[in-house]
Amino acid sequence: MSTTRWGDALVRYPAGRAHAYRAAGLWGTATIADELHRVARAHPDRDAVVVVDGRATYRELDQRTDALAAGLAGLGLRPGDPVLFQVSNTLAAVVAWYGVLKAGLVPVATLAAHRGHEVSAISRQVGAVAHLVETGGKFDLVGFAVDQARDHPTLRHVLVVGDDPRGVGLDALAAGADPPRARERVAVIQAGIDPDDVAVFQLSGGTTGVPKVIPRLHAEYWYNAAAYASSWGWTPDTRVAHLIPIVHNAGVVCALHAPHSVGGALVLGTPDLDVSLPLMAAEGVTHALIGQGHFGAVDHPRFDGAVAALTQVVLSGAKIPPRLFDFFERRGTWSGQLFGMGEGLFLTTRPGAPRTARAETVGTVLSAHDEVRVLEPGAETPVPDGEVGELCCRGPYTLPGYFAAPEHNARAFTSDGFYRTGDLAALRLIEGERYVSIEGRIKDLINRGGEKINAEEVELLLLRHPRVSAAAVVAMPDRRLGERTCAFVVVDGERLTLEQVQRHFAGLDVAKFKWPERVEHLSELPRTLVNKIDKKRLQARISETLAAEQGAGGGPVPAGPAPTGPGGGPA
């Protein structure tokens, strides 16, 4: 299957750069499914995945995913068909991921927390043919998938992890498969797939509307993960703990594909520390990625036992509290930082980086072929080292364009193909090497525990309330998640309570982590001299308000039930 399936919706890497990446040995000539099969043959009896309620060796994972792929093909799904994923951190989710890839299908990495507002638009944009969900949980994802399929132009199948008559169960699809025949069928499917074709659709934190779709290709996506594993010196003995959502760019690259690229093990937990820390302790994890939402884990009574075998910990989120580096250094555990994005670029402070670089920057590029520039915002002029500008990048795993978004791509890339990240950064010279420090962002985003919330999207949703005449959304500081969403509103009539605002968002079927978690009322929104809403003043106002409340014995706790998010995480 060639990339022509996607037509002009897919922006291809320029031929010269693609040739250079392959000639340098960065991009391979195999699909992700074939890469997994190769590793499974080399390490058949090693742990591939361990979860609270089960585990699978590479041989078992390879055979189970072959069987599922054969069942999916028998259902009539064809290579290239997009499949929406809404699953949590389970062994079944990992089997589903690789099974879908082995069938030649394209996972679409929506979050389990997404609802109709997001899923409907994303599904129609990519032409999703199937929706894969799981049973259990407080929200009926199976019923949601059935509802989404009504009047949908392409959705034909509801696939279910678990047992529910409203969809097709994955266990039933895989049951009774003959291993040699399933392997043969997978091999035939994979032989027809171009390694430079779309493997996965990831989603952006975007600044306009619902998330933008990020096409990740087989060769570049596997290289991204393999380079990440190499940067930390991973081996088949590496055991990687991961607690944030697995079907998310950070989860797929750092926790799933990366350890599997070297024959290592994924120890897959959940955001619940009471569940995950005992699992980490029992499995002797050697590496862990800790995101903003788990910075407080070091205070948990079971944390020391969980990290007894830990040799590396990577911290990712907003500015890392110095006490975290101090904590790990006291116990002799190497610690560093990661900055990543679904669009591609990874920056890491890998082993050997000076203490100052590890504590105060997000490091250097993952690949020698990554190119980073810090430009004057809105221009293409580089700023001098040490000065703040917009971080821009291109390279062997950074997208050359969003899917089916030509107008947005015209703004999101420089004239020579560098992606404008929207992050403010500076290049700092430390011991003769340039490191990147993140200094803020241009894009109007709230970073809630690693999940990027588009302020404009939330503002437009607020304005759909019949009594809201003006709205502005800003980030308010939060000890656990880094930031939460504060909405400043101008209303007609009586003030709106937080509960009323959240009911409004529930009625619009918006993912819960996007709901405002505090509402402030104003008679009018402050404006700058050029008549734009002055968000700096609003940001200062809410920070001062929270500081005063804390000083008076209160705190930044919303006056109502705070919505739960998807767990948060980097990239």
Short recap of the structure:
The chain has 571 residues and is of the alpha/beta class. Helices cover 33% and strands 24% of the residues.
Descriptive account of the structure:
With 571 residues, this protein is α/β, with parallel strands linked by helices. Helix 2 runs antiparallel to helix 3, helix 2 (32-42) crosses helix 4 (91-102) and helix 3 packs across helix 4 (91-102). Among the domains are: 1-6 and 33-45 and 59-216, Rossmann fold (3-Layer(aba) Sandwich); 368-443, Luciferase, Domain 3 (Luciferase, domain 3); 445-551, ANL, C-terminal domain (GMP Synthetase, Chain A, domain 3, 2-Layer Sandwich), CATH 3.30.300.30. 33% of the residues lie in helices and 24% in strands. The protein has a 9-stranded mixed sheet with strand order 2-1-11-10-12-13-14-15-16, with helices on both faces. Strands 4-3-5-6-7 form a 5-stranded parallel sheet, with helices on both faces.
Estimated helix fraction: 25-40%
Provide the low-confidence segments as ranges: 555-562, 564-570
Q: What percent strand? A: 15-25%
Shape: globular
In whole angstroms, the N-to-C terminal distance is 29 Å
- How many strands, what sense, and barrel or not for the largest sheet? 9 strands, mixed
- In the CATH scheme, what's the topology name of the domain at 1-6 and 33-45 and 59-216? Rossmann fold
The total count of helices amounts to 18
Which structural class do you get from the secondary structure elements?
Answer: alpha/beta
If you average the pLDDT, what whole number results? 92
CATH C-level label of the domain at 1-6 and 33-45 and 59-216: Alpha Beta
CATH architecture of the domain at 1-6 and 33-45 and 59-216: 3-Layer(aba) Sandwich
Cα Rg: 23 Å
Strand elements, count? 25
Q: Can you list the strand order of the major beta sheet? A: 2-1-11-10-12-13-14-15-16
